[in-house]
Amino acid sequence: MRKKCTIVLLFFSLTVLTATRSHAQAKIAYINMQELILSMPEAKLAYDSLQRFEKSLNADGQTLLTELQKKMVEFNKNEPTMSASMKEIKHKELETAQVSLEQYRTHMEQQLSNREQVLTAPIIAKAKKAVADLVTEGGYACVLDNSKDIVVAANCDDLLGAAKKKLGIK
Question: Around Cβ 140, how many Cβ atoms within 10 Å?
């Protein structure tokens, strides 16, 4: 009986010791992914490319807007001398032009969003891979992204500097 109690006590002690040890080894780190991504040279190039694309889309939209404004000025100028049927036709033309302009704006927003996704996806993937490599190298159990307003405890490691170094960013 005494031998059984000793074995059970020894087993219990080893279990508690192992659990305590594995708990003590769990390392947690944090990183500001937004700051890391924005500091990457690729992000600056992507942002500049997106700005140029947006500028060209805005120029096309401005052309549509200018045409609409000209039609409105012409309509307002000639309205007093127009017949009722001509007023109706011109009014429908203006409505069609307005709808076209709104459709273009929606299409432009979709194009910008798609272009941003295409340009940023590989940059984000590269940053995530660098952080994942650091997690493996450092033996971290968890990494928090503090760019999302997460409160970080003082005993966590900041991986931003290491990630920038891994990506070759000064």
Answer: 19
